[in-house]
């Protein structure tokens, strides 16, 4: 079956991983967010270092600290997950060189560099749905970049908040293979031909 109404773009795991990278500061990473980053399939080396990153996650949890830094993770990962060392070093450098305030178009470029530093959307080939999700993300980022004349110079947190609102407001459903059962709204069904039709909620009072 195919359900025509897709969830907000923000709810897709690929997009949530992107916002996790963008919203997390290397200097103070909540332990749960650090764990999510290490276990994310959308970072470079996720498949290659899968077992080693799981061991690194366990080591971090044994520290029993509410927050860790990127340097803490790098120190623990040197002998366990060398690709994580490289990713977190690149990510930290991008954070350090970013200005505190700039125009939306400049933030869009900075956000893209932050994601690239972590190897988002990952090393494995994307499936069709993930590829389309990435394309929808690029469209949302382009829409955000076009807000220079209306939004003006923004702090990073303000820019991320606007970008997140765009992702939440954008309904998205990847194109799928034809299915014998289509679950549609009234307007989407207009003009279509069916072998069988079930109209939910239809009775003598409606």
List the helices and strands and how they pair.
Elements: E1 2-3, H1 13-23, E2 29-30, H2 31-39, H3 50-62, E3 67-68, H4 70-77, H5 82-97, E4 101-102, H6 104-117, H7 128-145, H8 148-151, E5 154-155, H9 156-169, E6 182-183, H10 186-189
Helix pairs in contact: 1-9, 2-3, 4-5, 5-6, 6-7, 7-9
Could you describe the 3D structure shown?
- The mean pLDDT is 91.
- The protein has helices at residues 13-23, 31-39, 50-62, 70-77, 82-97, 104-117, 128-145, 148-151, 156-169, 186-189; strands at residues 2-3, 29-30, 67-68, 101-102, 154-155, 182-183.
- A two-stranded parallel sheet has the order 1-6.
- The chain is built from ten helices and six strands.
- It is mainly alpha-helical and 206 residues long.
User: Beta-strand percentage?
Assistant: 5-15%
Q: Number of DSSP helices?
A: 10
Largest sheet: 2 strands, parallel
For the residues shown, what is the average pLDDT?
A: 91
**Total strand count, please?**
6
**Roughly how many Å is the radius of gyration?**
21 Å
C-alpha end-to-end distance: 26 Å
Spatial ordering of strands, largest sheet? 1-6
Q: Which stretches are poorly predicted, pLDDT < 50 over at least 5 residues?
A: none
What is the string of SSEs from the N terminus onward? Answer: EHEHHEHHEHHHEHEH
Report the structural category: mainly alpha
Shape: globular
| Percent helix range | 40-55%
């Amino acid at each position: 079956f195919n359900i025509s109404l897709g969830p907000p773009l923000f709810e897709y795991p690929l997009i949530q991983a992107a916002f996790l990278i963008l919203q997390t500061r290397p200097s103070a990473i909540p332990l749960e967010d650090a764990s999510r980053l290490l276990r994310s399939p959308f970072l470079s080396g996720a498949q290659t270092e899968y077992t080693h990153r799981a061991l690194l996650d366990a080591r971090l949890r044994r520290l029993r600290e509410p927050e860790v830094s990127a340097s803490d993770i790098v120190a623990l990962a040197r002998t366990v997950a060398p690709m994580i060392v490289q990713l977190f070093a690149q990510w930290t450098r991008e954070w350090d060189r970013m200005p505190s305030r700039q125009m939306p178009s400049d933030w869009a470029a900075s956000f893209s560099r932050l994601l690239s530093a972590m190897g988002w959307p990952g090393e494995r080939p994307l499936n069709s749905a993930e590829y389309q999700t990435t394309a929808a993300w690029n469209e949302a980022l382009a829409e955000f970049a076009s807000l220079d004349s209306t939004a003006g110079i923004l702090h990073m947190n303000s820019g991320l908040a606007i970008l997140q609102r765009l992702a939440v407001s954008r309904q998205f459903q990847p194109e799928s293979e034809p299915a014998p059962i289509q679950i549609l709204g009234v307007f989407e069904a207009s003009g279509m031909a069916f072998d069988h039709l079930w109209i939910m909620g239809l009775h003598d009072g409606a």
